[in-house]
């Protein structure tokens, strides 16, 4: 699908992978709606790229619907959704203080998996009523998983489960939405230099990078954005999960 002239929503667009994606889509001519719980971050990015800042929670039906309705009025309609919003938590299923609090597990599943599903279902509903573009296309949805979906480490049970669910969503959603001309794909990044990792000492960053076969460095958010661009523009990519990890395979710990 051609990106220029479309309206796009990027969740988690105020920082990290979402910010890099928002910046690239804007550069390519999309009207980008930066949807983030952090209003200040959303406004900063949106101002710099000439986009629209939207503050809200991806797990809220009302917040999501309001954001998508605003985006639907821009460009030639809402054509692109990129789900980057997510949280991580570390904790063993059974740790020194007993079993993981169920609320901790639920929170990660709710934000990462249910939040992604919430945005996807509401966006697809709006996309399905749009006029067809070239090649009978109406829209593209790109979700963000993680290599943890495949090789979750000890202490990553909640995170890995949430990202595994996102991986499993790609094919059934792509099959269901095919009748509307809406594609669904997932990018599963490895270890990227996001704001969280920026806070680590350089020695810790170097240690993480050394585990990556090639290139032996942390991923650049711009490389994630490039992958999203490829998925959007290549009409034959559908129902796929693309690992973006420098051949990394996570060890148990």
Automatic annotation (TrEMBL):
UniProt entry keywords in alphabetical sequence: Oxidoreductase
Record-linked PROSITE patterns: ADH_SHORT
UniProt keyword annotation of Cell membrane present: no
Superkingdom of the source species: Bacteria
SUPFAM superfamilies in the record: NAD(P)-binding Rossmann-fold domains
Record bears the keyword Aminoacyl-tRNA synthetase: no
UniProt record similarity statement: Belongs to the short-chain dehydrogenases/reductases (SDR) family.
Protein name: 3-hydroxyacyl-CoA dehydrogenase (Short-chain)
Species of the source: Neorhizobium galegae bv. orientalis str. HAMBI 540
